[in-house]
Amino acid sequence: MLTGVLLLTLAGVAEKILGVILKIPLAGYLGSEGMGYFNSAYNIFTTFYTVAVTGLPVATSIMVSKSRARGRKLEVNRIFRVSISLFLTVGIIGSAIMYFGAGFIANLIDENNNSPYCIQAIAPILLLICVSSSIRGFFQGHQNMMPSAVSEFLDAFGKCALGICFGGYAVTHGYSVEVSAAAAIAGIVIGHLFGMGFLIITKCVAKPDYSCLGTEVDEINSESSRSICKKMLLIALPVTLGSLALGLTSTIDTFTIMRVLKSDNAMGLYGDYTTLAVTLYRLPHALIVPISTSLTPMLSAAISSGNAERTKSTLFSAFKMTAILSIPCSIGMGVLARPIISMLFGGSYPKEIIQNTAPLLSVLSFGTFLMAMLTITSAVLQSYGKQHLPVISMTCGTVVKLILNIVLISNFGIIGAPIATAASYFVMVAINFVFVITYSDIDAKIFKAFLPPLIAMLCCVPVTVGSFMLYAELLPREAVATLLSVLTTALVYAFALFATRAFSREDIMMLPKGKKIYAMLVKMKLMR
Hints:
Layout: H1 2-53, H2 55-69, H3 73-100, H4 102-109, H5 116-122, H6 125-141, H7 146-172, H8 177-205, H9 225-242, H10 245-261, H11 266-282, H12 285-305, H13 308-335, H14 337-345, H15 351-383, H16 389-412, H17 416-439, H18 451-474, H19 478-499, H20 505-509, H21 514-523
């Protein structure tokens, strides 16, 4: 699993980093208000995007994985044809709703909102992403993560380059801030063609390999397209609803912050919060999504084969890797919130705005670990055929988010939004864990996966604070001090993980070149 995770992680991290790089110059071009228009459209798109493509790729990968494990080649091809047909239908409908309903959606956000241009500009990307997601689901079902990883990187590169170029061109040529924000989004849409083109070419050229399965290839028998479509929708619909948590929390912020605040600078405050705090808070999610993406088809295949030992080891490995990656991101970002924002956006925003936004990121950082746990527990439940259960946790969490947003923002200002987000994720995760313990092969030992990384990171907190203060005192630029502090913490954290025996020999052997890495670690006396 870790080979696929590594590929998708590298692509996901590159995509998130390029997403941050995109927003740094755009923030300078558009300012707080312009980024408010940009983010309000992009957050609405995120929800539509989740509805359009989250469930179907998971359903496609699960069904392809199971049929492939039985050697049913004809059925695998039919699953893909049904998938692409459903994706095109969803993409066309979703794009049409966003484009023709842009004015209505913008008025729901704010009566004086001029962001219909941004919503209309981003509408076509739904159709493009639907095509890409169908092909990604097909390859992920074959446990081939390379096409998805490469296409994600090409997407990110194209969107970053063209988004900056289009937005910068509009600003320098005197267009209004609303039109300039829409131009930047148009560049992002066009940039997506890079990744989609690569996937289409790869699907046409690459031929799936069945020889490694050790089972007879069946090119005759297959379920009907109607039966496949029914099964796919039964999997996809609850998965989609259960995966709406991330999109819905942002959408609730979009539709409540400006209406509850009711101030002249509400759009600017929303723009600062979503650009500086939310963008960085979502960055670690790129490390977790690849684990859940690789986990679903692998765990489904293990459950289908009846291999209990393999199932338990896959579960434990997934939770452990999620904890190892998410815990330091959550704690580290909370401790260094202001320096991190200043390092990335100090050239685009004044110190006062950065100082005011840092507490928002510190509060949101508590939700980073919870969001990771929500993602992985939902993937586990999906693999066990319990796709409907995350819908219950998501519904409860969404209600909590909406109520707390209204109550806290009206009483304490915009800091109520991140508090409500963290609380809603806590509710969702707690409910999901109850379901996972009840319905999966997991046992109480799974919680041991969280202890070593938690101890290792808590030991690193003094290192993080102390190293930053030391570097800031010795070096002329705080940005350099922040970067060195993060690198120092990462290095100490890595050694602390080995000291707490967080990794086993089996974990290392699952990595690419695992034997060589393990031998090197033994020589360094980091492992036995």
